[in-house]
Amino acid sequence: MLYEGLYKDYTSVSALLQSSPRPKEHEIRVKIDGFQEKELYLGYYLQDKQYLLDTTFLGEDGYFTFKGEEITPGGLFLIVMPPDNQYFQLLIDPDNQRFTVHCKSPLNPTEGMEIKGSDDNELFYDYLAFLAAKRPEAVSLQEAIDNPETPEKKKQDLQEKLDALNKTVEDYQDELIEKHPKSLTAVVIQSNLPLDLPEFEGEGKEVEVKKWQYAKQHYFDNLNLTDPRLLRTPFLFQRLDHFVNKMTVQHPDSINQSLFYLLEKMKPSEETFKYYLIHFLNTYAKSQIVGFDAVYVFLAKTYYASGQAPWTDEEQLAKIIENANKLEPLLIGKVAPNIKMQTKDNKDIWLHEFQSPYTVLFFWDPDCGHCKKSMPEMIEFYNQFKGRGVEVFAVCTKLYDELEECWLTIEEKGMGIWFNTVDPYNRSKYKTIYDIKTTPQIYILNDKKEILSKRIGAEQLPEVMEQILKRGEHN
Q: Is the pTM here over 0.85, yes or no?
């Protein structure tokens, strides 16, 4: 599609912001010569997706007019042309919501495009035209440099020309940003400027580590997380996603630090803070990665329980906090809640009394299909690891009137090789304490009954247990 992904080339553009009062409505008029369709769409970016905001129809004056009594949130927007959904981009600023666009052709709508009433978009497209004019020369020079048949002496000359061309572009960028620092285009371009890394002393890996640390510390130097207009651009999400998932060690404590850093910086922009707090909470609520529920708990406790999410209704807020309170005692590193169970001969035993360097706490149900499938794998696992300080503390989830099913299944499936327990009258409330909504559920504990891993399948147990044994996490 036309100009798809062009934001990647935004390394500079700027524009003038009007000092007039903020408009109370928006009116964006678009005329496309030769366009045969009768409707046109206004879309916008959010995260890594594009959404439809409005639809309008061809007026008698030959214009498509997007009009409303409320201002449109600022950002990078799309004029989408059916039926092929080709589009071109427009910058919409909350302070300038009335302008006109005239395209000379639907095949290449930005070529010769006329914009009236929006200095921002005029400068935006002037910049894109400048880049387009320089790009062929840059591509040609780079191809010649990369050509193995090009003599080294000539490569040096070509590189000097390419460096000079890049300097011309950088000067253009710097001048625009300096003249129009508060415009949306300047903000967009500034946000995509590359980070200048200083020279670091040291050798090899030491230098690489210093570069990585500096890059992470200064990753958002050029991107203003407090500007709400950037919420509706594609690059904000890309940068945040890269920072959290690529530049942050994938451990809950490290992720929590990164999210706290980002959210605190976003706070001056209420809309951005709200959007990404909700986004991060939902992301880690749904995460299937073992231990990442700690991130959900951190966000819920830090922001929701402290009253920093006032948009959340009371019922939903209560659910979020309740979920966090349930999960917190079960986080990796916590001491597993102590529960009193019962053996087949009606003797009581507390989980914490069960002595073993490692304990696999295994909740199962005789009628559970997944449990039946997992049982041979559990037995194979136990036979493989029982001589290495690993014991299984199994809990059958049937109650008093169905207990016989537990003991029959244990006998039939050969499960008597490990320690089996029940709670006939649910006195321990283990289903609530351990948040047992489905079975099987598996926890791995050390000799202090600290949780080392959890919510893993029986097929994963050997690999996870092997890693734990290598690390020696029982003491």
A: yes
